[in-house]
Write a structure and sequence with these properties.
Belongs to the LysR transcriptional regulatory family. With about 350 residues, the protein is an alpha/beta fold. It has 14 helices and twelve strands.
């Protein structure tokens, strides 16, 4: 069994076409067919049903595809890591989620470049979820995200917790209320924008801390029933999860593609949303940002990198982060990647 045979099988399984797989792999169609036949002969198993169009995997082929795909991904990751270990790049490729860019990231990068003039930095806007694959492929060396991830290839540091604020249209009746409660916001349309959701295990554990019942938080019978139903299952959408911790279900929600669109809808008077406090300088002509009284309604900031390969410039980045935190009076616990 050879790697070339396995890659040929994966290409055919993905594309369900010998001709398309041949184009993708750069092989001729006869060469591709020969590799697959050799693989099946070596294994003594038929992997592909060639008598139907489009091509289908046999039951054994589907099982093999599921297992071997993971193995090949790990081989690619190890290969990439080995290459980077033998010849580390002088460039530090940093991934970030947009909300971090509105916070301290620009200040941190400026501090890093000032303290280490030899460091070349590239920045890439990439979601927390996509950062995991980008780290493995070498597209980025480190990522700033808002979510914890359980991945055997990745290590992470919790940098800090950032308080959420509520974003309301300037014309909203609560726009001038300085201390907001989630229960008072439940009658509004909540605009959701996260593309990454909480792990189910996290949602379950936090749901156990619910302070109020759905019936107590919501007055009408229909909405109380809906809240109780939704709270019976883990809620992984981050903003809904914050409300659910207090037994509250918003009256209605709208889901949009990103945070900027969410704030645009708030500015247009189409609803409210919650954002990390670092975003409260955006669209201030149309939006009122007010503090939430709940101290545990926060958005964490994580730093992710590979477990087995830490880019040599990352310690300098951490030093810059902690220096900015100290200047800003931000509480943190100094950590290092292993």
């Amino acid at each position: 069994m050879y790697l070339k045979q396995l890659n040929a099988f994966i290409a055919v399984a993905d594309l369900r076409s010998f001709s398309a797989a041949a184009t993708q792999t750069g092989l001729s169609q006869p060469s591709l067919s020969r590799l697959l036949k050799q693989l099946e002969t070596d294994m003594g198993v038929e992997l592909i049903d060639r008598y139907h169009r489009p091509l289908n995997l046999t039951e054994a082929g589907a099982f093999f595809y599921d297992k071997i795909s993971t193995v090949l991904t790990e081989i690619d990751t190890v290969t990439s890591m080995t290459q980077r270990l033998s010849a580390p790049s002088s460039i530090l490729n940093i991934g970030f989620v947009p909300s971090v860019l509105y916070g301290l990231l620009p200040e941190i990068i400026a501090e890093l470049k000032q303290s280490s003039p030899d460091i070349e930095v590239t920045l890439k806007d990439i979601s927390s979820y996509q950062q995991m694959d980008a780290l493995k492929s070498g597209e980025i060396d480190i990522g700033f995200g808002r979510f914890a991830h359980q991945d055997p290839w990745i290590q992470q540091i919790l940098l800090r917790h950032e308080r959420y604020v509520v974003a309301l249209p300037k014309s909203h009746p609560l726009a001038q209320v300085r201390e907001q409660r989630l229960i008072d916001l439940a009658n509004n349309r909540l605009i959701l924008y996260h593309q990454t959701h909480l792990p189910i295990s996290t949602a379950i554990s936090k749901s156990k801390n619910t302070k109020l019942t759905a019936h107590a938080a919501i007055n009408t019978k229909d909405r109380s029933t809906r809240a109780q139903t939704s709270l019976s299952e883990p809620i992984t959408e981050p903003l809904l999860h914050l409300f659910a911790q207090y037994g509250i279900s918003p009256f209605t929600t709208t889901t949009v593609s990103d945070l900027q669109v969410a704030l645009g809808l708030v500015a247009a008077g189409e609803g409210i949303t919650l954002v990390p406090a670092s975003l409260q300088t955006v669209r201030t002509e149309q939006i009122s940002y007010q503090r939430l009284v709940h101290e545990n309604v926060t958005s964490p900031v994580y730093l992710h990198t590979l477990k087995d390969f830490v880019h040599p410039k990352i310690p300098a980045l951490l030093t810059a982060i902690y220096h900015v935190y100290e200047q800003r009076g931000i509480t943190y616990r100094r950590q290092q990647f292993t």
